[in-house]
Amino acid sequence: MANYLVSLQSKIKGFSNMKLTLVLRDKKNALKLSTKSIEKFIERITTDTKDGAVARRRRQLGYGSYIDAYDHQYPSHVIYPSAVFEKDDNDNLRMKTFNGVVALTIDGLKEEELKAVKRAAQILHYTLAAFVGPSGHEVIILVRIDREYSEIKQEYSEISGTYSEITYPSLTEEEADVLCQEGHRLAATLYQAIMPKPISTEPVSVRSNFHMPLDEAPYFNPKAIALPVSGKPATVSQTSVIVKNANEGIADASSDKEAQNVSRRTQQLVDFLNAHYQFRYNSIMGYTEYIENSRKYMDWIPVDDRALKGITMKVRLGGIDACDNDVRRYVQSDMIHVFDPISDYLWDQYDKWDGKDHIRKLARTVPTKNPHWEDWFYTWFLGMVHQWQVGSQAKYGNQAVPLLISTQGYNKSTFCEQLLPPELSFGYTGNLQIDDKKQVLQQMAQMLLINLDEFNQISPKTQQGFLKNIITLSSVKIKRPYGRHVEDFPRRASFIATTNQADVLADPSGSRRFLSVELTGPIDISTPPNYEQLYAQAMQALHQHELYYFGHEESQQIIEWNKRFSVKTAAEQFFFDYFEPAKDTDEGQWMSATAIFEYLKQKVGVSMLKPLNVSHFGRKLSAIPGLKKHITCTNTNYLVKEKQR
User: What per-residue confidence (pLDDT) applies to 64?
Assistant: First the structure.
């Protein structure tokens, strides 16, 4: 072993100072970052830790379950090979520099196959390193990449016999992701031809990572050159090679004994589809989605009629006789695994909270003089997360609606949109057509957060009627597209609203549902929220049965605060000019709505009170908080005090 390390030391002498990022989240979920040069990393993985952490984790993997719980109990380093990361103010990982490295993984290997794969990786001079991975049954190959025809510079040193570090121009993380994805696709195509087992087709990005590996004899090539990546889609010739290889595998699979009872043509179709695509049934959206294995960096796409025809054409070009209905039967069958993006995301954050109050910290990015805002936002956020998890049998929906009030340009809409993590961004909409009741109900079942943008444009009639009703719903009855009957779906969406006007609440009795907050300045959106901790905190709070709704005392507090944001008719404004609610008969008198209305007509004139009539005016008086009323068999009287003018 000592001789090997000496040899290794001589190999890496003069190699560029490329660094990998090591991330460790301890038992308290605190995030710790460190960096290690590539040569130090290669030295590091030749021996286990003092307590044998890697070997112990490999044994746990052999049990086949509970690995997430094990990793929480015994945290280990996670390696990010493609970039150097740093922490932002919210403890989010933020890319600092891009390394120009992608990782290929070949898993499911036996002991003799591990050495064979490492030897095969040495054939191509793009291989920077190849080593046994964290499970002991895979090989990870680090491949250097760069962009064709770019300003990237890499020079060869005659003295050290190595290439210098690749110097990249400033890249955003999105640009680095695209480069990683295309580089991985191209590298996988090249390396697959010399590999005895398939290369993993899992989605890749600059954040792709793996747990700390262990390999006594890793392969390391300091003279590795960078694979030029054009960033262009796969060529026809490349696609033909992939199709040819897949068809050869299909023919072999068709002759397998396990498939003898299955139609050869159907088996070929299923094998071809699984070789080229991944499918999942999105239980929230109610349709099957797909992604091409050669285009993993693209988003999941619904299998609509156009996509179905395209998939069918590729199947036929692959030499398989199939029609649209053949493909449709498979992709719309229960053979496709069910995917619930909401549950998957939320439970992935469970038990990860670091104990800090991230929800109220996010609320503090909204500058306001409202002393209740942080607590209101906290309760509403819990209500939103709880709403995503309830079924159609729930009695109540999330009835609270934060209402952000300010002039234009205060980042209100951006703040609303950033409340959802990227994994759930499909569930946000700020384009609700409130007059289209069918669309509203459908989006309440499918969306997660609906922004009632330009709330002031919603008419008082709609506020007091349709909007008031849907905010309280726990489930919605709608008919699916192309469905034959009405179905009952759980309501998932919560509401948030923005407006440029302060006097917008037209329903005094329903004002308790709006958490009005008037901004004193632009919202700080410079640092992205720490979504993992936000939702981990919410899940922990709900698990501990914290309240996700407002009680009577808080509702009265909200009503009192919202008085300043209520829409007042001319008659109401004139009422407060001449009257105020009285506490008792010693300071006031009982008057009917007709008497008060007639009094105001004498003071300001009939034309000033139009279009309101006595009946409507009486309903307005009944909704005034603090105004006592007494109902008789002939009339309703109000206890009022005339103001001295």
Answer: 64
Contact between 98 and 139 under an 8 Å Cβ cutoff? The reply is no
* Cα separation values, 419 from 340, 378, 494, 529, 563, Å: 19, 13, 12, 8, 27
CA–CA separation, 42 and 36 (whole Å): 10
C-beta separation of 343 from 389 below 8 A: yes
The answer to whether 467 and 434 have CB atoms below 8 angstroms apart is yes
- Alpha carbon of 370 to those of 119, 163, 416, 507: distances in Å? 66, 60, 18, 21
Instruction: Determine phi and psi for 457, rounding to 5 degrees.
Output: -85, -5
Tell whether omega for the bond before 611 is within 30 degrees of 0, i.e. cis.
yes
Does the CA dihedral 15-148-167-35 come out positive or negative? negative
C-alpha–C-alpha distance, residues 53 and 404, integer Å: 50
Cα distances (Å, whole numbers) of residue 484 to 346, 366, 438, 476, 487: 33, 46, 16, 16, 9
The pLDDT tens digits of the residues spanning 338-347 come to 888 898 899 8
**pLDDT at residue 313, rounded to an integer:** 93
Mean pLDDT of 567-573: 69
In DSSP terms, 287 is beta-bridged to 282
Q: Between 7 and 508, where is the model more confident?
A: 508
Run of H or E residues at 471: helix 468-472
Residue from 121, 124, 125 nearest 133 by CA: 121
pLDDT at 91 over 90: no
The distance in angstroms from the start CA to the end CA of the chain is 99
Which helix (H) or strand (E) segment holds residue 278: the answer is strand 277-282
DSSP alpha helix (H) spans, 15-162: 38-44, 53-62, 67-73, 111-121
Tokens representing 65 are 């379950």
Q: Are 11 and 222 in contact (CB under 8 A)?
A: yes
> In 318-446, which ranges are continuous DSSP H helix?
324-331, 341-349, 358-363, 373-389, 412-417, 437-446
How many Cα neighbours within 13 Å face the side chain of 315?
A: 26
- Cα separation, 617 vs 572, in Å, equals 8
CB atoms within 10 A of CB 3: 7
- The whole-angstrom separation of Cα 520 and Cα 410 is 9
Q: Taking CA 360 as the corner, what is the angle to CA 355 and CA 364, rounded to the nearest 5 degrees? A: 135
Identity of residue 50: K
Percentage above 90 pLDDT, the chain = 38
Q: Give the Cα separation of 140 and 114 in Å (integer).
A: 10
- At 32, is the secondary structure helix, strand, or coil? strand
Contact 511, 564 (CB under 8 A): no
CB 179 within 8 A of CB 145: yes
- Does residue 384 have a pLDDT over 90? yes
Task: Find, among 431, 410, 409, 427, the residue nearest to 419 by Cα.
Answer: 427
Q: What is the pLDDT of residue 416?
A: 95
Instruction: State the DSSP code for 424.
Output: G
> Which uninterrupted H or E stretch holds 315?
helix 305-317
| H helix or E strand, kind and range, residue 6 | helix 2-12
